[in-house]
Amino acid sequence: MSAGGSSWRWVVFATALLPALLAAACTNQDAVLGVVTPPPAGTPVSLSKDVQVIFSAKCGPGCHSGSNPFAGMSLEDGKSHAATVDKTSCEAPGLKRVKPFDSLGSYMILKLEDRQSSITSCVICATDPFALPNCGRLMPFGGPPLSDVEITLIRTWIDQGAQDN
Predict the structure, then answer these.
(1) Mean pLDDT over all residues of the chain?
(2) Which of 11, 13, 93, 108 is 20 to 30 A from 34 in CA distance terms?
(3) How far is it, in rounded angstroms, from Cα 67 to Cα 62?
């Protein structure tokens, strides 16, 4: 048998084996690639461990960070609580960005769920160069919307009092 025939068999074997190995690797239920499931009911949600991770990855970079964040709202680690909790929204002055214990009354949730156009008293924020009438756009702007699980985590954090924890 020639060396070339042996190489050919190895390629066929490897090609047949690769999908099986990849399929087995995808069954690792302990892999953490992001938030997969919401916490069980009653589980405390933490700003620093649960919510800030979402803000830092999806909301802060390029928009709600730096020396002049859009809408004057920094979602950077160490700044997000002070910039959101009990702070009046500049787009919807009748609402708080985050109203502790009331996610349904929190402007942040309306923006994350693309329901901000339901508000009738909107203004354009002077600090937001891309602001639009009717309370703007779905957030995060320019990226994919947050998943239902991510929104549920933020909503739960708010409904549990929006603690700085």
Answers:
(1) 79
(2) 108
(3) 11
